TrEMBL record:
Record's function text: Catalyzes the 2 serial methylation steps for the conversion of the 7-monomethylguanosine (m(7)G) caps of snRNAs and snoRNAs to a 2,2,7-trimethylguanosine (m(2,2,7)G) cap structure. The enzyme is specific for guanine, and N7 methylation must precede N2 methylation. Hypermethylation of the m7G cap of U snRNAs leads to their concentration in nuclear foci, their colocalization with coilin and the formation of canonical Cajal bodies (CBs). Plays a role in transcriptional regulation.
CC annotations in GO: Cajal body; cytoplasm; nucleolus; nucleus
Biological source species: Ciona intestinalis
SUPFAM superfamilies linked: S-adenosyl-L-methionine-dependent methyltransferases
Polar residues: bias regions: 1-13
Chief place of localization: cytoplasm
Chemical reaction(s) catalysed: a 5'-end (N(2),N(7)-dimethyl 5'-triphosphoguanosine)-ribonucleoside in snRNA + S-adenosyl-L-methionine = a 5'-end (N(2),N(2),N(7)-trimethyl 5'-triphosphoguanosine)-ribonucleoside in snRNA + S-adenosyl-L-homocysteine + H(+); a 5'-end (N(7)-methyl 5'-triphosphoguanosine)-ribonucleoside in snoRNA + S-adenosyl-L-methionine = a 5'-end (N(2),N(7)-dimethyl 5'-triphosphoguanosine)-ribonucleoside in snoRNA + S-adenosyl-L-homocysteine + H(+); a 5'-end (N(7)-methyl 5'-triphosphoguanosine)-ribonucleoside in snRNA + S-adenosyl-L-methionine = a 5'-end (N(2),N(7)-dimethyl 5'-triphosphoguanosine)-ribonucleoside in snRNA + S-adenosyl-L-homocysteine + H(+); a 5'-end (N(2),N(7)-dimethyl 5'-triphosphoguanosine)-ribonucleoside in snoRNA + S-adenosyl-L-methionine = a 5'-end (N(2),N(2),N(7)-trimethyl 5'-triphosphoguanosine)-ribonucleoside in snoRNA + S-adenosyl-L-homocysteine + H(+)
Pfam family of the protein (one): Methyltransf_15
GO molecular function, one term: RNA cap trimethylguanosine synthase activity
Subcellular compartments: Cytoplasm; Nucleus, Cajal body; Nucleus, Nucleolus
Annotated PANTHER family: S-ADENOSYLMETHIONINE-DEPENDENT METHYLTRANSFERASE RELATED, TRIMETHYLGUANOSINE SYNTHASE
Gene3D superfamilies for this protein: Vaccinia Virus protein VP39
Protein name, as recorded: Trimethylguanosine synthase
């Protein structure tokens, strides 16, 4: 009997241990995730958002669903290599951090001081905070004072509900759509506009203006189209031409850059649209 009791002991203890482990795992969840079940799916994907998440990345509630996944941010930053870039809506720094690896200076703007503080903190984890000027304020006020080679626009899309409609119109963004684009255009012709994957293509072509082009790139992660980036301006569109796309053994499209480096993200081939809007007299 004694030996039986003893042999059953460790099982009970293990059970307790398991319970304790589970509990402590739960306690490790950030407060904003713990308090909101709808955010749990983003927590599962935290390393997709920041590969160095465990080193102390900080995100507020909104940033959990609006930060750009790191691989995509890295790719966009490669395309946007330049001296000075404006990240007009920098949030918690998903894009700004990657721009700091490819650009001499990043002007990172956000209206929300908490997000900006988190962006600064997160940039320090990646060791790039010195290359970023963090500016708290509204892009709509600050834009006329800015000078840069490229402007990156990643405005709010109105929450995760953007996927509910078949086609997303930039009108849904209000001022963050056409108005933000016009302000960006006064800073530079080279604009990268980060948009929902179901964005209305006609509207994006229209934004290019008569006689101009836009390149629409579908950003894919693990075979899924996650977002679209619309590139305006000769320099940004030319970039794709100097790089080769090739299909790897898994039939994935990959990119081989000038140095022969094969980037390990997946992108879908992009399409360049020409806006050939003409006008004529009615009579
Ligand atoms: C989609 S999030 C940007 C996410 C960012 N690209 C990232 O990867 O972390 C949009 C951001 O725009 C900011 N924002 C909203 N209105 C703004 C304004 N008028 N000027 C500047 N930033 C604004 C929000 O606070 C939010 O952080």
């Amino acid at each position: 009997v004694e030996s039986l009791n003893q042999s059953s002991l460790p099982t009970t203890t293990n059970k307790h241990k398991k319970k304790r482990k589970k509990k402590s795992k739960k306690r490790n969840l950030p407060e904003e995730i713990e308090n909101d079940a709808s955010l749990k799916k983003y927590w599962v994907q935290r390393y997709k958002l920041f590969s160095r998440f465990d080193e102390g990345i900080k995100l507020d509630r909104e940033s959990w669903y609006s930060v750009t996944p790191e691989k995509i941010a890295e790719h966009i930053a490669e395309r946007c290599r330049c001296d000075v870039i404006v990240d007009a809506f920098c949030g918690s720094g998903g894009n700004a951090i990657q721009f700091a690896f490819t650009c001499e200076k990043v002007l990172a703007i956000d209206i929300d001081p908490v997000k900006l503080e988190n962006a600064k903190h997160n940039a320090a984890i990646y060791g790039v905070e010195d290359r970023i000027d963090f500016i708290c304020g509204s892009f709509f006020d600050i834009a006329p004072t800015l000078k840069a080679d490229i402007v990156f626009l990643s405005p709010p899309w109105g929450g995760p509900e953007y996927t509910n409609c078949e086609t997303y119109s930039i009108a849904e963004m209000g001022d963050f759509g056409t108005k933000a684009f016009t302000l960006a255009k006064n800073i530079s012709d080279n604009i990268a506009f980060f948009l929902p994957r179901n964005s209305n293509v006609d509207e994006l072509v229209c934004l290019a203006g008569p006689g101009n082009q836009v390149e629409l790139e579908q950003n894919m992660l693990n075979n899924k189209i996650v977002t679209i980036t619309a590139y305006y301006g000769k320099e940004l569109i030319e970039w794709g031409k100097g790089n080769q796309l090739f299909k790897d053994t898994n039939n994935q499209l990959n990119m081989l850059d000038d140095t022969g480096y094969a980037a390990d993200f997946e992108i879908q081939d992009s399409v360049t649209y020409q806006n050939s809007s003409l006008s004529c007299d009615d009579e």
